[in-house]
Amino acid sequence: MSARERDPMLPGGRGAEPMDLSECEAEPIHLIDRIQPHGCLLVIGGEADRVTHASANVKTVLGRPPDAVLGAPLAESLPPGLLALVQPLIAAVRAARDPETRSAHCPPEQAPDGRACHVTVHRYAGRVIVEIEPDGTPVPRASPDPRTRVTEQAGPGSPDVGALHRIADETARMVADLTGYDRVMMYRFHPDWSGEVIAELRQEGMEPYVGLRYPASDIPSQARALYTLNLLRVIADVAADPVPVLAAGAETDPGAEPLDLSLSVLRSVSNYHIVYLRNMGVRATLVASVMVDGVLWGMIACHHRQPRWVSPSVRQAVIQAAEAFADRVRAHRLYIETRRNQIVDHGVAHLESRLAAGEDPVAVLMTGSERLQDILESDGAVLAMGDALATGGVAPSPAATRRALAAALAADDDGSGVVFVPDLRRVTATGDDPEPRGAPVPSGFAAMILSRAPLIVLGAFRVAEVREVFWAGDPARPAVRTGDTISPRESFAAWKETHEDLARDWEPWVRDALVRCGEVLRRVLDPRNLSPSLPEATDALGSRLEAMAEVSGGLMSIGGESGGLVVRERDGTRRLASITHGFRDLFDVVSTGDDGESLMADHQAAVNSSQLLDRILDRAFGAPVACEFWSRARGRRMIEVVARTLLTLDDPGGTRRWDMISLRDITGAHRSHEAMTIARQRAEAASDLKTEFLAKISHDLKTPLNAIVGFADMIGSGVAGPADDKVREYAGIIGGAGQHLMKLIEDLLDLSRFDSGRNPPRDEVLDLATILRECGAWITVQPKADRLAWSFDVPDPPVWIRGERMALKRAILNLLGNALKFTPPDGAVHLELTRLDDGAVAVSVTDSGLGIPQEELGDIFLPFRRGRSPSIASRDGAGLGLAMVRATVESHGGRVDVLSTPGQGSTFRMVLPAGRVYPAGTHPD
């Protein structure tokens, strides 16, 4: 089962329908005959090195039109200085055995138009391709070797070689320093080719992507194949129009080989990818491949919100950083594999030595420090011999285990004997033998079939885990089709998917470990003699467990906790086989006899009287259970009970199980929790009193304020009698101050009421479009509003929502008022209402004003916080407006986003959730 929660961020397309992306997998993106316009491209072929292909913009770089270049020798197409630079590069790539790329910097005196440029030459698919990128900036200074910088982060020979996330973070920081991109991410592929951002460095105010998962369809297979060939790709301007590549003569014939630009640095990209980047708000990208042992492990992905070009020297530095990170990934793998091999080697050797010493297989596989489940990193194990089976740790019921064994036997198609069942519950669940309530449920099963006659199977179980995957947008709706156009999804915000029924996948090394354990059993023991001896061996082991768990210590002497060994007999009855001194002290039972047998009987009676075993034990498997009881010696106590199964035997005679329970006194922690609960309740009560006080005092203040404002208007307008200019001026000041104080009281009331969370907004059916038009009409007649250009994108049809009219209207007016206040003369303000793709609505206010520094964006929604720059701090206001806006919108279940650039302006966006919005075209009853 899975549960999903979506938080859309970006507007959705209209008239679009979801679609499958399988057709995008077939798009030949390496044969796209277009390039990016910031450079030009020539293809050289034939003995005379003639130009067989040229981009349509060659004149802007070389000064000659395409017609004059196509079909001409290269020597006639390039200026002498540039030709002298290019010819050695062409010779080098032709001489190389494998496809190779060479680049060089062309100084201004050799360049065709007097501008420095960068030349890249490569050979691929039988063609030589020359790419020229003009550069108006000086060559970047040499940077330290990224390999050295990454290695220094962990230290030479560091034991912390497995700290990939830390190294990924440092690599992202280094690439951000090298390139200057707004966002740098370390992206890792999963086995199903979905990807996850494991590290990120971004500018403040940008939405975080770290921890988000992206479906495999976001990077189709042919794109991944290109990333293994071309280790770095740059898009300098997502919005730029691509330039076609023209062909000469025979190259235009239908049978001519298409131009393969797999290794091109200028190659344009799929329209689908361009729309994808636009939907993310990206204008420029750089992507470097992380190759580990010849396989695409992940990528370094850089995003920028403005067009950005980086020189080949910087690109090479990024490639080196990716290679350095790949070295650490490789070292991490080697470290993990070496450590795991050591664990398996030690476990198998220990298993063999114990069997060779004459110990029974049940004791060897189910108990001790090197159990089978420890070797295989599992939660439980099973050994089946004939019609008897023994399980240890977390395992299904005996009946369910037998169904799992039958499924494994049926699934052994190739006769290898090793079988993995990924979703065990589909095979074993019948409802006839439910597991104890709260017990962990085995879901993954790995089995080694040693023999079918007699039946001998060795197996391990892994319990189901709760997995939360945060996708960047809904992975089930990765694209939409609008007419003939395929567009990717437009929302990349977190979409949580929860899986509760799957265990961790069995890794490839588990197969080898199972085979080795099976070989040991075959080599040391005679399989024909194992089956009859299993019940006897298990009963003998159970007796030893009871002996080891005696009152004086042994098996259950753990950290001062109270413990007991409980045996469930074949008839279903339970008995306490052994207890610790702590167990006796916890229940303060005084024995009526001096011998151990009477002591156990008294303890058994005490536990039975408290109904501990019947009421708690079955609930305490897998998760602690808290219960309250009364101790004569220590009064009311709270204890935590945990139970786990040590061994289960099932044979034709019935089922026996040995469980260990552990009890811990948590009275102190429980009382602290109670005290914190009381403190929270008191704080909530104080907050309620504050809200009530503000409501009362505001009413008491608003009455005289209304009188003050009213009389000031009367005096200023002359209704109260003749008044000279000075009197009217003073009346205006008094009235303005009263209005300001009135607004402050309203904002403070809304902030207090909504911020407490216990006063939800009043639900009214509203037309949000009408409210926006009313707000727009009001703001444009305010003083100094005529100095700005106002534009409103509000749909004519009503947009019906549920919410509190006056509160939402004050929030919108606050945003418009801030835009008016902080936008210089001749600036522009835009108000927009948009329906999002999941039914939510967004109200956006965009201005061309002062903007907000990135370091201040985190504080602007806090009460009484104002900007620190003089241009902002000098404006009137108490700093309550944005705090009130956020409290109001969040009380409606929405959120407020902000994107701001100092000197360019800001965009504030209020998003109201789909649950408060009526579908388009419908009218509320």
UniProtKB/TrEMBL annotation:
<keyword id="KW-0600">Photoreceptor protein</keyword>
<dbReference type="InterPro" id="IPR013654">
    <property type="entry name" value="PAS_2"/>
</dbReference>
<dbReference type="Pfam" id="PF02518">
    <property type="entry name" value="HATPase_c"/>
</dbReference>
<keyword id="KW-0597">Phosphoprotein</keyword>
<dbReference type="Pfam" id="PF00512">
    <property type="entry name" value="HisKA"/>
</dbReference>
<keyword id="KW-0902">Two-component regulatory system</keyword>
<dbReference type="Pfam" id="PF01590">
    <property type="entry name" value="GAF"/>
</dbReference>
<dbReference type="InterPro" id="IPR003594">
    <property type="entry name" value="HATPase_dom"/>
</dbReference>
<protein>
    <recommendedName>
        <fullName>histidine kinase</fullName>
        <ecNumber>2.7.13.3</ecNumber>
    </recommendedName>
</protein>
<feature type="region of interest" description="Disordered">
    <location>
        <begin position="134"/>
        <end position="160"/>
    </location>
</feature>
<dbReference type="InterPro" id="IPR043150">
    <property type="entry name" value="Phytochrome_PHY_sf"/>
</dbReference>
<dbReference type="InterPro" id="IPR036097">
    <property type="entry name" value="HisK_dim/P_sf"/>
</dbReference>
<dbReference type="GO" id="GO:0006355">
    <property type="term" value="P:regulation of DNA-templated transcription"/>
</dbReference>
<keyword id="KW-0157">Chromophore</keyword>
<feature type="region of interest" description="Disordered">
    <location>
        <begin position="1"/>
        <end position="20"/>
    </location>
</feature>
<dbReference type="InterPro" id="IPR036890">
    <property type="entry name" value="HATPase_C_sf"/>
</dbReference>
<dbReference type="InterPro" id="IPR035965">
    <property type="entry name" value="PAS-like_dom_sf"/>
</dbReference>
<keyword id="KW-0716">Sensory transduction</keyword>
<dbReference type="InterPro" id="IPR050736">
    <property type="entry name" value="Sensor_HK_Regulatory"/>
</dbReference>
<feature type="domain" description="Phytochrome chromophore attachment site">
    <location>
        <begin position="163"/>
        <end position="328"/>
    </location>
</feature>
<keyword id="KW-0418">Kinase</keyword>
<dbReference type="InterPro" id="IPR003661">
    <property type="entry name" value="HisK_dim/P_dom"/>
</dbReference>
<keyword id="KW-0808">Transferase</keyword>
<dbReference type="GO" id="GO:0000155">
    <property type="term" value="F:phosphorelay sensor kinase activity"/>
</dbReference>
<dbReference type="GO" id="GO:0009584">
    <property type="term" value="P:detection of visible light"/>
</dbReference>
<dbReference type="InterPro" id="IPR013515">
    <property type="entry name" value="Phytochrome_cen-reg"/>
</dbReference>
<feature type="domain" description="Histidine kinase">
    <location>
        <begin position="696"/>
        <end position="916"/>
    </location>
</feature>
<dbReference type="InterPro" id="IPR016132">
    <property type="entry name" value="Phyto_chromo_attachment"/>
</dbReference>
<dbReference type="InterPro" id="IPR005467">
    <property type="entry name" value="His_kinase_dom"/>
</dbReference>
<comment type="similarity">
    <text>In the N-terminal section; belongs to the phytochrome family.</text>
</comment>
<dbReference type="InterPro" id="IPR029016">
    <property type="entry name" value="GAF-like_dom_sf"/>
</dbReference>
<dbReference type="GO" id="GO:0009881">
    <property type="term" value="F:photoreceptor activity"/>
</dbReference>
<dbReference type="Pfam" id="PF00360">
    <property type="entry name" value="PHY"/>
</dbReference>
<keyword id="KW-0675">Receptor</keyword>
<dbReference type="InterPro" id="IPR004358">
    <property type="entry name" value="Sig_transdc_His_kin-like_C"/>
</dbReference>
<dbReference type="InterPro" id="IPR003018">
    <property type="entry name" value="GAF"/>
</dbReference>
<dbReference type="Pfam" id="PF08446">
    <property type="entry name" value="PAS_2"/>
</dbReference>
